[in-house]
Inverse folding.
């Protein structure tokens, strides 16, 4: 039985107890050139995955000893931030031949059209699973229908898709972006209160992420919920910094030209904050706990800890990028015919300069 048919059966009836984990299809000659094959292609003899195997391990790895590799196509957003680099690394170190996988990795350079192309290329290559970290939430129905038609299960990771038919994907795993935004607002309220500025008029600006990305939509919404609770907080302006340091700096430069009384800048990721901090300093202002402008951001990558230790950044709200093993676990459950939770949120914390940041940084994985 062809693996694609097995996958289709898996979708149609989750009653299949154990499903073959082979497949290992070769990239076709006309495969999208941008889809970079992570691992060397298997030899033709390995492509004999017709028979079901029962050799998946409980730790989310597959047994490579049988020679049957699970082919996974990962449509990655891009390489826009430290978070993204850690996320890519998590997938590359999890989906190895040693662990029983062949990873086909595609970097979409933050463009949805490139991701759609990559997904079509994965379908053409008859991969076993398609994993997508969607750049934006909308506009995916057609290509997901094509994957469904081909019998290839789709797993979403990191950002969410807004699709009317949720059978178009198997599961999603990522951060709770609205909650992250609300945690940021709550932190800010407490911080201002402690400074005796609880009743003061507070002027804010936001450097948003990529517009339409669920990390942007959720963080903006969470913060808006908290703004509604504080009549003395004023959002002067919001503009996208595309989740990059360079754009974050550019946007902050323009904010500083337009307003001379900014109290808080909310950066929807750490890299934008690094750019904003450079812009603040270049404008002759100061930031951080001792400075003129409070700077907060999301992700909590290592460089954010360094920035807090340096006294530039006030706080960072965590978003965990290490989704490789989580997606592998979902795949192994599907391979075993088990049901998986459709929506899987990852627990997240926050960090500020009142904490022992040196010790936390020493233990930090990303
Ligand atoms: O915050 C940002 C990255 O989607 C959660 O994307 C992710 C975001 C993350 O570019 O740094």
């Amino acid at each position: 039985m062809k693996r694609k048919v097995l996958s289709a059966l898996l979708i149609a009836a989750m009653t299949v107890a154990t499903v073959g984990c082979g497949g290992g299809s070769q990239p076709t000659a006309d495969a999208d050139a941008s889809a970079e094959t992570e691992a060397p292609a298997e030899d033709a003899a390995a492509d004999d995955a017709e028979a079901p195997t029962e050799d998946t391990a409980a730790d989310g790895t597959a047994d490579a000893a049988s020679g049957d590799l699970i082919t996974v196509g990962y449509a990655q957003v891009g390489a826009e931030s430290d978070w993204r680099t850690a996320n890519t690394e998590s997938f590359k170190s999890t989906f190895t031949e040693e662990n029983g996988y062949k990873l086909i990795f595609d970097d979409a350079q933050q463009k949805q059209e490139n991701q759609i192309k990559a997904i079509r290329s994965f379908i053409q290559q008859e991969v076993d699973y398609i994993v997508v970290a969607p750049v934006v939430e909308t506009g995916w129905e057609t290509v997901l229908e094509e994957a469904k038609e081909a019998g290839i299960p789709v797993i979403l990771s990191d950002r969410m898709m807004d699709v009317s038919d949720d059978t178009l994907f198997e599961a999603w795993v990522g951060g709770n972006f609205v909650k992250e935004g609300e945690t940021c607002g709550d932190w800010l309220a407490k911080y201002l209160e402690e400074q005796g500025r609880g009743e003061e008029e507070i002027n804010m600006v936001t450097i948003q992420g990529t517009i339409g990305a669920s990390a942007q939509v959720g963080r903006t919404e969470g913060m808006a919920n908290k703004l509604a609770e504080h009549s003395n907080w004023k959002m002067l302006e919001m503009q996208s910094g595309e989740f990059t340091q360079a754009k974050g700096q550019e946007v902050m430069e323009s904010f500083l030209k337009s307003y001379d009384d900014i109290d808080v800048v909310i950066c929807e990721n750490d890299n934008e904050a690094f750019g904003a901090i450079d812009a603040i300093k270049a404008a002759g202002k100061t930031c951080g706990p001792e400075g003129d402008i409070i700077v907060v951001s999301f992700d909590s990558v290592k460089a954010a800890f360094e920035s807090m230790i340096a006294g530039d950044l006030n706080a960072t709200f965590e978003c965990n990028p290490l989704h490789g093993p989580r997606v592998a676990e979902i795949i192994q459950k599907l391979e075993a015919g088990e049901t998986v939770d459709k929506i899987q949120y990852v627990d997240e914390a926050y960090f500020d300069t009142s904490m022992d940041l040196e010790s936390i940084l020493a233990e930090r994985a990303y």
